[in-house]
Amino acid sequence: MDTFITWFTFAVVYGTILSISACGEIINEKAGHLNLGIPGIMYLSGVVSYIATKAYEGAVEEPLVIVIILLAVLSSLLTGALIGLLYSVFAVTFRCNQNVLGLSIAAFGVGFGKFLSLVIGAGSTTYPKLAHANDIFNAGLPFLKDLGVVGDLFFNYGFMTYVVIIILVVAMFFFRRTRIGLNLRSIGESPATADAVGLNVSRYKYIATMIGCSLAGLGGMIYVMQFSGASWSTNNSIEALGWLAVALVIFVSWKPIHLLWGAPLFGFLFWAYAYLPNMLSINGFTGMTQIIQMLPYLVTIVVLIINSSRKKKENQPPASLGLPYFREER
Amino acid sequence: MTNTMKTEKVKKPSRIRITVRNDSTFLQQGIARGVTFLIAVAISILFLWMVGGNNPFQSLVYIFQGTFAPVAKGGLSITKLNAFFKNFVILLGIALALTPSYKMRFWNIGGQGQVLIGALACASCMIYLPGVFAGMLSQDATKDLANALIILISALSAMVAGGIWAYIPAFFKATWKTNETLFTLMMNYIAILLVELFTNIWRGQKSAMGLINQSSHIGWFYTIEANAGFDNKFITSSVFIPLILVAVLVATTYVYISYTKHGYEINVVGDSIRTAKYTGINVRHVIRRTVSLSGLLCGLIGFFIVSNFDHTVSTFSDLGYGFTAVIVCWLSNFNSFAMVGYSALIVFLEKGAKNLADSGYSANLNEYSAQFIVFAIILGVMLGKFFMRYRIHYTFSRKHLVKSLTSGLIEEIEEENKIAKEVM
Fold it and tell me: Is residue B366 part of a domain?
């Protein structure tokens, strides 16, 4: 049972990171932008939030809780938004190819993130754990977390997990029930029609991309603060998570609310290699880890194929996904 | 009519308008490209200056020496030059391999997976085939023939593996229009995990895989052997033959895209699938064939990486160039000759940044500083492409703009509304 609880909590924390980044990517894609830069944005935002929090904890004797939270959250949101702005300037105004732009942002984000972390680490590759930030971001809900197994399974996560759940619900409400959400969806489907109706296509695309990217940045921050316990290391896990988030968008067929179960499921599949053999008390054979790790990608491919073959309208990607819009080219 | 009309606030048009440029001359295009490129270079130098301090041009010297390093006895360091050419060949090779797909607007971002799966196939041939050919290898007379056969089979199986890896998404794209960008992306990760899986099996209890057939050199690709009258270190190195082959590939790709029936079909399908259908082209067949060809060539690159350069396989065998090649391919407008320049530039910058970091010139300039410069240059080239195709109009006076755009219509409506109000 203990193994299961550990597995479950890992899955939920990974699910938190995946779902907020995937939610950002959904907002991007609903505006017609296949932003492949998500891994880079997550990586860079993670580094920046770590640097900002570290600087504050180092400078002040008694760091304030609210300042740490604001610093971590806002720095990651701002980093994401800035890259989103850069992306929109080139993808919307300059009509550059989105895939190329996205891939170069992914490469740049990871590369520049490593650059920054080497600069602050002054060459060393180990980074101190930020004690205060770790306490804050991994606190768990007061009182509720002491409810035995239920408390361990559902209420013992850092507060960001619950914030993310709220964001997902808001995103669902936004897309389904609000006028602006409807407008945004229409821009992703057919920007020319939306333009004819009188919507400012460029403005919607700019804002949607910036919000989407800042949410992805938040995902990077959650990885650093919650999952790695407010420490930093220059490995490639964030990047892998970023690509997984892009896959997850297909898996939930562009519906934010499905992330509530889809993202933890991906987390489960991702961590299955570490806990499943142990729970079933079987001896793993060489390579079993990798075979289990393939599952999220295989499942995504299967979903992709099924969706495209069944041609059900509500499960299709936005019709203008990846295409630049220029009014004079019809 | 006018009575019911509300005086809605007229939206102010933007001061900036963008129109298509149809009449740009060759010179204008050159200026657009040149200026944006120079801006990117200037920003890069500014970056080196701000981060590295001191003299940014000293940094540039170190970057230059990453590839062209003078040695004490005169001439250039062959080691550095060969290291440059190895990366250059791999990057250019993948970019060329991807070209047919992209020309057809098939977004094959699975170059990484196709190269890795080819590398994996080649490595497994190198590991298992010596056992199969044990009889032939043990005899001096047939030894060379067996080795040649192993190399040939490795190359073929790498190509087939890469081809299959690309064929799967192409099949579904052709049949059900399954999104190829996302599909090939997923295939990358499966390939990476497969490589990880097999290297784990092959390394056994050891910490790393090491070189395959380290003592016997079976399955290692040929290099030109040095002899008494002839020992040019560049020609006898492992980069020389791949360099020639990739040069041939540059020309072949150009001819294939521009002058063959296949190339014509690819162009038409890329421009408009409907036109292709009306012309009588079997679109599904063309998609499957072209993308498989891309995969096949990627697999071949994978073969060269394992058999010729690394003699081993890892998840980093493709040097992360699967994605970079996409960028190279697109920046050069699918022109294979331009790809030579862009690949060289990117590898040159990466090697330069590595050298800059190793030189200890500035503590802040580590090997990842190349990422910033490469990114700046990519954005610069993109901007150049934009200015080649579009023209920006900027108007200082909004009033004048409104008048010119609506030919005075808005003033007329406002006048009518005023009259309507007075009547009421």
Answer: no
Q: Are A91 and A200 in contact (CB under 8 A)?
A: no
Of A97, A123, A298, the CB nearest to B330: A97
User: Considering the domain boundaries, does residue B51 fall inside one?
Assistant: no
Cβ <8 Å between B182 and A300: yes
Tell if the CB–CB gap between B183 and A301 is shorter than 8 Å.
Answer: yes
d(CA A46, CA A241): 12
As given in the structure block, the two tokens for residue B154 are: 């490795």
- What's the distance, CA B311 to chain centroid? 24
Bridge partner residues of B230 (DSSP):
B227
Q: Which of B86, B346, B351 is nearest to B240 (CA)?
A: B86
Contact between chains at A34 and B364 (C-beta distance less than 8 A) = no
CB contact under 8 A, B378 and A104: yes
Could you tell me the two tokens for A78? 């701002």
pLDDT 10s digits, B8-39: 455 666 677 788 877 778 888 888 889 999 99
Confidence label for A211 from pLDDT (cuts 50, 70 and 90): very high
Q: Which of B184, B354, B382, B387 to mutate to test the interface with A (most CBs of A within 10 A)?
A: B382
How many pairs of residues across A and B have Cβ atoms under 8 Å apart? 145
In whole angstroms, give the CA distance from residue A13 to residue A82.
Answer: 26
Task: For each of the domains in chain A, give its residue range(s) and CATH number, in order of start.
Answer: 2-140+149-315 (1.10.3470)
- Separation between Cα atoms, residue B416 and residue B97, nearest integer Å: 65
How many CB atoms sit inside 10 A of residue A169's CB?
13
Beta-strand ranges (E) seen in B210-369 are none
**Cross-chain residue pair A122–B363, CB shorter than 8 Å:** yes
User: A299 vs chain B: nearest CA distance in angstroms?
Assistant: 10
- Please name the member of A104, A298, A304 whose beta carbon is closest to the beta carbon of B375: A104
Q: How many domains does chain B have?
A: 1
Distance in angstroms (rounded) separating the CA atoms of residues B252 and B270: 20
Structural contact between residues B47 and B376, judged by C-beta atoms closer than 8 angstroms: yes
CA distances from A223 to A43, A237, A301, B133 (A): 9, 9, 26, 51
User: Is the residue at B371 inside a domain?
Assistant: no
Per-residue pLDDT for A123 more than 60?
no
- B311 lies in a domain? yes
Closest chain B C-alpha to A34 CA, distance in angstroms: 10
Task: Determine the Cα angle at B47 with ends B46 and B52, to 5°.
Answer: 105
Closest CA to A30 of A327, A300, A320: A320
Alpha-carbon torsion, ordered B217, B218, B223, B226, to 10 deg: 50
CATH number of domain containing B293? 1.10.3470
Question: Which are the contacts of A164, defined by CB distance < 8 A and separation ≥ 6?
Answer: A16, A19, A20, A23, A222
Q: DSSP 3-state assignment of B267?
A: helix
* CA gap B51, B363 in Å, rounded: 9
Asked if A11 and A268 count as a contact pair (C-beta separation under 8 A), the reply is yes
In this structure, the number of other CB atoms found within 10 A of the CB of residue A163 comes to 15
Contacting residues for B280 by C-beta, under 8 A, at least 6 apart:
none
Tell me how crowded residue B208 is: count the other CB atoms within 10 A of its CB.
8
Complex ipTM, two decimals? Answer: 0.88
Q: What percent of chain B has pLDDT over 90?
A: 37
**Domain span holding position B173:** 80-332
Q: Give the 3-state secondary structure of A243-297.
A: HHHHHHHHHCCCCHHHHHHHHHHHHHHHHHHHHHHHHCCCCCCCCHHHHHHHHHH
Element (H, E) at B18: strand B16-20
